[in-house]
Amino acid sequence: MTTHDVAFVGTGDMADLKNPNPEGFAMNYYHAEGYERLDDCELVACADLERERADAFAGRFDIPDGGVFEDYEAMLTEAEPDVVSISIWPEDHAAVVLDCARADSVEAIHCEKPMDLTWGNARRMAAGCREAGVQLTFNHMRRFKPTWVAARERIESGAIGDLERIELSPGNIYDGGTHQIDFATGVAGDCPAEWVIGQIDYREENRWFGAHNENQAHAHWRYENGVDAVVSTGGDRSFVPAEMRFVGSDGVLEIGPDESEADLRWQTDDSEWEAETVEEGAWTDPIHDAVAHVVDCLESGDQPVIGAENALNSTEIIFGVWESARRRGRVDLPLEIDDNPLEAMVESGDLDPE
Q: What is the pTM of this model?
């Protein structure tokens, strides 16, 4: 059996495990727990700018002293890992991912979401790994969340007929909403969107891991296969009274419905609601499942469902919403910008959050 040597960039602070916050979730601890469960993975190295954090991480996962670094480039050279998990702020994702892809030993990179702070870097990191033959995945682990899996399977089995519209209500579209938009895109067939139109409000500074997130957004886009989607963020679920709502030709299915204590419910035309509660395990279980999927695909050569190509589809929608707000009009895709429209509007003074 082949054994994969796994290394980690960005261990985070162990204290953030008990007190997650907009500056730290210590997500690589959860990644490492996932690899630790696999017989074909060995945790060999970690790097963090703060040595004490790296030492604490190494102590938790029995990484030898020689595998602890402050400089991730030195780690790549000396430890020669096969797989690298990256959990750092989005603005640094592309640079670190591309450095890892250039390392001779690296075969797979599993990076925290969102893809990057800018659309240009998101495309460049995907292209760089594609050219290097390195598998690149992002931790859109909620594709493995049991409730969401059950919902997708019901929709794919035809429980509500042909899918026509998807409605989403995340807190924001970038940091948290990337999960919902990625999942919705998967249910819609993992195809790109044709266009997006949206508007945002940003009056109170809202940063997650250094990146601006709007306070409120409303947007509509259409996938190439004709499925429509809308998103309404900001915490007011009066428009979409559930986490997610899927409308088909014969009925509707809701995940996290406001009007039910069940995890999901569905109904066909003129029928009573049927409901189901699915969640039983810890919230971290889908992270472990995502890690197992990363390793399985590395060994089989299959395309990961959380791979870069699928992540680009959902990330393009996110930046497309912000670009539509900047242009004050519909944006036809593919998106031909390099920057982050929300960050650019804040820097220019067009938006001035307090």
A: 0.97
